[in-house]
Design brief:
It catalyses: 5-phospho-beta-D-ribosylamine + glycine + ATP = N(1)-(5-phospho-beta-D-ribosyl)glycinamide + ADP + phosphate + H(+). This protein is of the alpha+beta class. The protein is built from 13 helices and 22 strands. The protein has 3 domains: 2-85, Rossmann fold (3-Layer(aba) Sandwich); 123-192, ATP-grasp fold, A domain (Dna Ligase, domain 1, 2-Layer Sandwich), CATH 3.30.1490; 197-424, D-amino Acid Aminotransferase, Chain A, domain 1 (2-Layer Sandwich), CATH 3.30.470.20. Helix 5 (98-105) packs across helix 6 (107-116) and helix 7 packs antiparallel against helix 8 (165-176).
Length: 428
């Protein structure tokens, strides 16, 4: 079949790499893609937020299966848009409609959803500019530190952890009155701070049936030992040593099942991925957030561990047949180290020549922000490459990923040298 992936990052390169392995994949397209996806697919120079252009590409290329990578087109309603187009009734789509994407698109919606269905999460309250003074009064009685979250999509920058009351008040004023995050911050969720260790669990659902994919832990901060500002993700590990069988069973029983039951109760037919960001607190799972798609760079460690035919999995998701397939998972450990541009997550330059990629052996270099020009691969984003290695132990996977990260060269290259190291030493 003909398959189209929407997106341009490491997640989409990992999707393309996995889909291309299937004998069911005839022709693969990525819009807009990157230098990595160009090695196994045809890149289409269109924006994934240009819904008419995406529709035309689907028609022109006789697409049978569409996989939507990023959150933005999902939240903006691309699935609903496509479902209204004539002649596309048979198009298989992996990705939720606008109602389902609210799990990620609105923090307020997701918190209320969790409260309605008894899903464990931090206590919270939502405020707007109209209730700003009420929010200030609420902060005065709240324990510290306190978490403030912009309600909408803010490119991963809409969360502030305030250690003092003064900082919390300033943040609330800045977000609501000062419109620090624009429309995304028109509502602010004030949330209890939880102490624990984070991980992510990924659910694939066809609206009725579900499969739980391999879990992962990512590393958000730019600096080693989790210091410095947050980023889109500096690395990831799968499996996660502290995600014991007993703990994952709690996740399934207390989070996954009530989440899917809640979606059905609300009449939301959700067909796609649900990313569940979790905090393990005293052995219990608490939901930090939902995402309506796969994570990045977590996808780059999850997909290499899946041994089943990925096209079959995607078709079963779109057709409501997930109960008819089994998913095989490799016992190996996967570690990805993200190479980023100098200055990231602040201002950074692009157009730097990337070299030594051809020397990589027994690792995957998933392209995140790259561009091919005149036969050379250039940097074209903050996160540039995700270097994924697999091995029979966490120590060996860390070593292989780090060695490859050292080998690849471009001007200003930065990366964390401690991805996964905390898990080698981890004890519950």
């Amino acid at each position: 079949m003909n398959i189209l992936i929407l997106g341009s990052g490491g997640r989409e390169h990992a999707f393309a790499w996995k889909l291309a392995q299937s004998p069911l994949c005839d022709t693969l397209f990525v819009a807009p893609g990157n230098a990595g996806t160009a090695q196994m697919a045809t890149n289409l120079p269109i924006s994934y937020n240009d819904f008419p252009a995406v529709t035309k590409a689907i028609r022109d290329n006789k697409i049978d299966l569409l996989i939507i990578g990023p959150e933005e087109p999902l939240v903006k309603g691309i699935v609903d848009f496509l479902r209204l187009q004539t002649g596309l009734a048979s198009l298989r789509i992996v990705g939720p409609d606008t109602k389902g994407a609210q799990l990620e698109g609105s923090k307020d919606f997701s918190k209320q959803f969790m409260q309605r269905y008894g899903i464990p999460t931090a206590t919270s309250k939502t405020f707007t500019v109209v209730t700003l003074q009420e929010g200030i009064s609420y902060l005065e009685t709240h324990s510290l530190p306190v978490v403030l979250k912009a309600d909408g999509l803010a490119a991963g920058k809409g969360v502030i952890i305030a250690d003092t009351l003064a900082d919390a008040k300033t943040a609330l004023y800045d977000m609501l009155d000062g419109q620090k995050f624009g429309d995304a911050g028109s509502k602010v969720v004030v949330e209890q701070f939880m102490r624990g260790i984070e991980l992510s669990v990924f659910v694939l659902t066809d609206g009725t049936n579900y499969k739980i994919l391999p879990e992962a832990k990512d590393y958000k901060r730019i600096g080693e030992a989790d210091t410095g500002p947050n980023t889109g993700g500096m690395g990831a590990v799968s499996p996660v040593v502290f995600a014991t069988k007993a703990f994952l069973q709690k996740v399934e029983d207390k989070v996954v099942k009530p989440t899917l039951a809640g979606l059905q109760q609300e009449g939301i037919r959700y067909q796609g991925f649900i990313f569940v960001g979790l905090m393990k607190v005293n052995g219990e799972p608490f939901v930090i957030e939902y995402n309506a798609r796969m994570g990045d760079p977590e996808t780059e460690v999850v997909l290499p561990r899946i041994q089943s035919d990925f096209v079959e999995m995607m078709v079963a998701t779109a057709e409501g047949d997930l109960d008819k397939i089994a998913i095989q998972v490799s016992p190996q450990t996967a570690v990805t180290t993200v190479l980023v541009s100098g200055g990231y997550p602040g201002d950074y330059a692009t157009g730097k020549i990337i070299s030594e990629l051809e020397r990589l052996d027994d690792v995957m270099a998933f392209h995140a922000g790259t561009l091919e020009k005149d036969g050379q691969v250039l940097t074209n984003g903050g996160r540039v490459l995700a270097i994924t290695a697999q091995a029979n132990s966490l120590e060996n996977a860390v070593r292989k990923s780090q060695e490859a990260a050292r080998m690849v060269q471009f001007d200003g290259k930065q990366y964390r040298k401690d991805i996964g190291v905390d898990l080698i030493r981890y004890s519950d």
